[in-house]
Amino acid sequence: MVSIAQTKSNNNSIEDSQNFSSTTNNYSTASLNLNDKYDEAVKFYQTITDDFIYFKTTEMCGEFSVSVYDIYGNLHPVETNKGSINMSELKKGIYIILFTCKKFSIAKSIVVK
To answer: 96 with 68: CB under 8 angstroms?
Structure first.
């Protein structure tokens, strides 16, 4: 709350009075990312490309499928070989690669230049 007042005294001088009230809230945040333990299951060797993205999966992931989405949520078909994804047919832009493993999914962002 802020209030400002001016008063005139008997000797024609003006006195200013200002009152300030302030409330401060301190918050602490905690983050629990359930995917932290799964981040090691899929590793990328480059995230900016004009041809291939190379990846490695661990036994934690097991069998998996790969889906590639643009930033508008459109699914794009890509050729996936063991350890690589062919991104050369995609237009320039940002894409999300979704690895769907047996028990979890991991999303990684990729830039096609």
So the answer is: yes
Domains of the chain: 37-112 (2.60.40.10)
Instruction: Report the amino acid identity of residue 110.
Output: I
45-92 per-position pLDDT tens digit: 889 999 999 999 999 988 999 999 999 999 999 999 989 999 999 999
Q: How far apart are CA 96 and CA 111, in angstroms?
A: 9
Bridge-based pairing of strands 105-112 and 48-49 is parallel
Q: Does pTM surpass 0.85?
A: no
Q: Dump pLDDT digits (tens) for 5-36.
A: 555 555 555 555 666 566 665 554 444 455 56
Eight-class DSSP state of 91 = P
Say how many residues make up the chain.
113
